[in-house]
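During the first year of the project, the team set up a workflow for recording each protein of interest as an amino acid sequence followed immediately by a discrete structure-token representation. This format lets reviewers and collaborators read both layers of information side by side without switching files. As required by the reporting guidelines, we include two representative entries from the current panel. The first entry is reproduced here exactly as it appears in our internal archive.
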Amino acid sequence: MTSPQSRRPAEFVERALCVLAHPDDIDFGSAGTVATWTADGTEVTYLIVTDGDAGGLDDTPRDRMGPLRRAEQEAAAKAVGVTDVRFLGYPDGRLELTLDLRRDISRVIRQVRPQRVLTSSPERVWDRIGASHPDHMTVGESTLRAVYPDARNPFAFSELLADEGLEAWTVSEVWLTASPRTDHVVDVTDVVELKFAALKSHVSQVGHMDDLEQFVTDWMRQNGRRLGLPQGRLGEAFHVVHTA
């Protein structure tokens, strides 16, 4: 008998929701994968929890950084075929696991009704600490709690149904990025230029990186080699959790 976690992810889903902490999180880890989904006809929505106003390396005034990074994320999304980009506006660098955050993510799950949700892993990666920003882990855990049990339970956050008319929705699978237990790889070799276009939209964050393409290519080549892609192919890696 096949265990739930040994099942392969669905070949195609109609709708996918990507829930990440900051503008550019999706593009470093998953923009190539998103490009393959949109090419296949999947409707993809981005939900970015903060505006990334604590990011950046120059002297851009803090009150301008949030709007700038929103615009950069919208441009990056268009590069891989995504036009529905939403922001929750929580403070960058100060996310906590709260009922309000769970409710706000649950609301968007019920609005979008995705079969697949992509988010960051709530587990810390000890050998690559940069992958485990506290905001990333908080968003990952909050999203998993929104997927189960909140979004599917009509009696959880009952105001979503009573006041907003949002029916309960069950997500079938969750893809976790930056996980210490990756078990699935997407070959993004043929769409890598779209990924680079998305990444380069985040000028405030990567404009200083002369070696951006080489750095990301080396990283994806390691993913491909580790998870069984043919020699030289580029991969984005995930831990897929079946939730229905």
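The second entry, processed by the same pipeline in the following quarter, appears below.
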Amino acid sequence: MPKPGELTFAVPRGTKKPPRHLADLTPAERKEAVAELGEKPFRAKQLSQHYFARYATEPAQWTDIPAGSRDKLAAGLFPELMTVVRHLSCDNDTTRKTLWKLFDGTLVESVLMRYPDRVTMCISSQAGCGMNCPFCATGQAGLTRNLSTAEIVHQIVDGMRALRDGEVPGGPARLSNIVFMGMGEPLANYNRVLGAIRRLTDPEPDGLGLSQRGITVSTVGLVPAINRLADEGLKCRLAVSLHAPDDELRDELVPVNTRWKVREVLDAAWDYADKSGRRVSIEYALIRDINDQAWRGDRLGRLLKGKRVHVNLIPLNPTPGSKWTASRPEDEKAFVAAIEAHGVPVTVRDTRGQEIEGACGQLAAAEK
């Protein structure tokens, strides 16, 4: 049964449950799992050290564990959840998109982006998405299934290994930012996403030891889940994919708005900001002649004025065959000015990855 405030969304029948992986488990649960396999509980700490601190997934690399125990532990706690189908790179190889095939053949994507001052990874939390936003390639694909906590975490573990091993130009580096902005609606997969955040931020070797302040969780506005997240005591940033300041248009662009209106979504976001102490990010995809009128920028500025907020405008990354495309430069400029007139900070996102089908869902759709 769902907990109070927890949302449930229909997942297609016949989907297989991912096998149990070490990253699905809390430190206490890992000890129990290791004991069930007939090993001493302290092996759980060793396995955690290998996976979360050394990114070592092959039993042959676990030299501090007796050879006779490695295969048994690997079979019980390290199933092959996902494999790389291919990497696509651009921006002199500093942007790398990965297409993953999950254990059941499902395809998902992640993107690693290296900038001069930081490294950001955009990860998926679902295969497909059930929110049905018409301008989004993932939304149009529909929802296949939720990702497990381990499937979410492994995207980051692999990215951190790639940075350590010099697979991305610029020398060894460490992830500084993680954004749940890939395929799926993170708060529709609440428990597994929360579990992933715990694994990412628990100190090594229990987790990856990353800062909660470097994690951003995006949502189209699932109000009960935002309220629940606000009570978790996290310092992650909340990003609300608004895309329209008025209910009439947002009902079309973000269908869940027919359930929770703009004001309700923003009120929940302000409550999260108050409890977390973090500024809310308002994500707004600028779509030519749809939502990029200066009067809508003015209306957005009025809604956000005086709040702990930052507006992140996103020039739409068009998908093949879609009628939706990016705004004209002059319209984008006027929209920015209309927001800034109310003293609301706003930036236009640096768009990366168009030449590698960078919009969420494009690569998986092309593969299919």
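For the second entry, the following points were noted during internal review. The chain has a mean pLDDT of 92. Residues 119-353 form a domain with the TIM Barrel fold (CATH 3.20.20.70). Both points are flagged for discussion at the upcoming steering committee meeting.
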